[in-house]
Amino acid sequence: MSAYERNMQPLIEKVKDAPTDNERYNANEQFVQLMDEALHVDESFYWKWNLGNYVSVLTSSDRQFRIITWPVVRDNGEYECFGFVQSYNDRTDEYDVYVLNDKSDELISVNEETLGPENWLGSVYQDLVETKHEGRTYYTLIGWTGVNALTQRKVIEPILFRSNNSRPQFGQALFRREKNLRRLVLEYSRDAMVNVRFDEQIVRTYENKKVKKNGRTYNIQVPHEEKMKMILFDEIAPMLPGMEGLPQYYVPTGTEQAYVFVNGRWELKDNAQGRLSDQKLNKEFEPLPKQVPTYQVEK
User: Fold this and answer.
1) CB-side neighbour CA atoms (13 Å) of 195
2) Which run of H or E residues covers position 12?
3) Same domain, 64 and 174
4) Does residue 128 share a domain with residue 51?
5) Eight-class DSSP state of 119
6) How many other C-beta atoms lie within 10 A of the C-beta of residue 197?
7) What's the number of domains the chain is made of?
8) Which range of residues forms the domain containing residue 134?
9) 49 and 164 co-located in one domain
10) What is the pLDDT of residues 60-87, one digit of tens each?
């Protein structure tokens, strides 16, 4: 494994810094071949790779799988991602290896499709979130890619392994209130900065309650602040009206949203505002809303 790593290190430097598409892709082809060979070596799953920051290596804490991803940047600013999944097979008691093929350009409904290794929405994964419900572990990946010269993309994507099957499935209906959503894809301007991270934050939520006053029932919102782990992300929208559907003009709105894992699902907190417990994040909490009627009165 040390020999494989020594041979791959100069290749990934060429993938990153070589001056032409031809040189970068030639080096990448050799890198892919060596990585494929290395991952088929017995016990290779336990090797701690040292290939620099350009290659992401994420391993689940239960050693169910490992995912390795990296990009190749073309002269025109387009990105193509490459990767491998090494996952445990219950039947053979071994780790199987799957090559990931970036088919981003061919996918249409990227938020709604369930994908496999052969038609992967290419990303360089930056974090692996593990959550549990009723004894089952759920895995969610947070990734990024540059897409092209105009846009970049961040993705929140569940990855699933069926019982007695090591083949990875990308995308899963874990998003409460959005039954067709298999992953959240945020595509936005290359000049913008969008934060997506899993963290323990203080979040403000609002609970709808009914109160009676002067013989009438009013709907009010009662604010709560709670510390919890969540996937916190920036809401994005066109910078000007009329630019809807053109991701190169999408930027953060200044509003933060959060997904909290509740009873086996990611639940969106629409009014969430996160901040670190010991420092400010982007802004102070907005003032609490006054507890006033919402104009719906029950007699």
Assistant:
1) 18
2) helix 2-17
3) yes
4) yes
5) G
6) 14
7) 2
8) 1-191
9) yes
10) 999 999 999 999 999 999 999 999 999 9
